[in-house]
Specification:
Mean pLDDT: 94
Order of helices and strands: HHEHHHEHHEHEHEHEHHEHEHHHHH
Distance between the termini: 54 Å
CATH topology of the largest domain: TIM Barrel
Number of domains: 2
Pfam families: Cellulase
GO molecular function, one term: glucan endo-1,6-beta-glucosidase activity
Shape: globular
Largest sheet: 8 strands, parallel
GO cellular component, one term: cell surface
CATH class of the largest domain: Alpha Beta
Protein name: Cytoplasmic protein
Family: Belongs to the glycosyl hydrolase 5 (cellulase A) family.
Amino acid sequence: MGVFDKFKDQFHTSSPSYDFPTSHQPIQLGQNAIFRYRQQRGVNLGSWFSLERWICQNVFRNASQPGQSDFDVASGKDAKRILEEHWDTWIRDEDWKWIKDRGFNSVRIPISYYHLCGPLPEVLKGTDFEPFHHIFEGAWGRIKRAIEMAGEYGLGVLIDLHGAAGAQNSDAHAGLSKGKVGFWDKHSNLASTSLALRFLASELCNIPHIVGLELLNEPANNSKLQGWYKSTIEEIRSIVPFDFPLYISDAWDTGHYSSFVGQHDKDFIVLDHHLYRCFTESDKKKSGYQHSKELKENFQIELKNQSEISKRSLIIGEWSASLDSNSFGNISDTEKDSQRREFVKTQLELFENDTSGYWFWTFKKGDGWDAGWSAKDANRAEILPNWVGGKNFKGHPPQGVKERELHEAHNSHTGYWSSHGGSPDPTVFAPGFSQGWDDSILFLSHPSGTSQIGFISQWMNRRKIEYENQSGKKLGKATWEWEHGFKQGVEASLKVCTS
């Protein structure tokens, strides 16, 4: 029996209007599925719900000491009014438009378990936030509205459980200012988290523009974490289908968890790595140009390798333009911006080439200029490009172009393998190419704006099943040949149809 099942009856008793489903159908491949499988180019909406004082100082004006976390705000004077006012004003219509106009196609929204207590009171039982139901009961309705607004602008949404009961890391952004990891200390913490994640997965999985659910943000790594990931994924999969993406943090151990994700390639599991170069003593000794050079020469090799191991189910959930002040020394603000510009340019190139997407941290700050952390300020300083949306779709190609490209690719393929010992089944290359071409244009012509296949292994896995079912032919040893054709079809369409 999972921890959720122990609370199911109580959950229904306290929230009789909520009908917890037992099964869902996968979203059919097509326009609706594109949100989840495309190259994600996103921005975090940091400190909208899970607060960080350095981003929005004003919300902490009445917080209890030490005044760094959601718990401190909730413990302070007039907390309900302050929080609801913040939730209602932090992101406005013009902000959604700004995000869309720069080519971002998704947002990552950090939330915490206590934000679910309106429809799910039991999520607070036995946790630090149990006394604060009345303060956070209005959060979930606003989160749902945020999801709706993103969808109206054609933006995907990644919901991230930023704070779990007891705190999964020692930072205040996990909800507490205790400076310790209490997540594993009590059964009630694990029960609350299981309940929260099942609720979120069930509520969100049938919304096409929800691109996924992140199980925990930056959990402290220990011997229990991988087992928890495995059992939690199994619990969630008992109520939602395999095509609903579940994101897991690499817990700063990318090599280990890329293998974990790669071994689960029949499930839609995505690895989240956070890339910052401003915190360690080593980072502080390097200029922006040096960081850029090291990313190109060293990190790129590592990133490409981990991406391949994970079957390209790897994203950068947080990154920024920020560099420590010691990285600059005594230089002008213009030169600082120049270094940040090069740093950002390098990161974007790496993410486009070797991952399935990214989310910049963060969209904005409440007070003061910060071109390192605020996407809006970085854009004004021309550090973050004015357009991050990739190449433009020129329109559907003239009749006969696809056939010509397929013919040339097929001849090249069969010619090569005929002189290198043959291939398992050269007849499956052409249908793979044709499917890749068609699917690539399906993405490129998406109504929300130019999209590109990002999670290509995940998409191909489903298309292969369709091909085998429709053709009555099992690919077997020829699987790689069909996949080779598919990838070449995608590449050919991008060359012909984008500028």
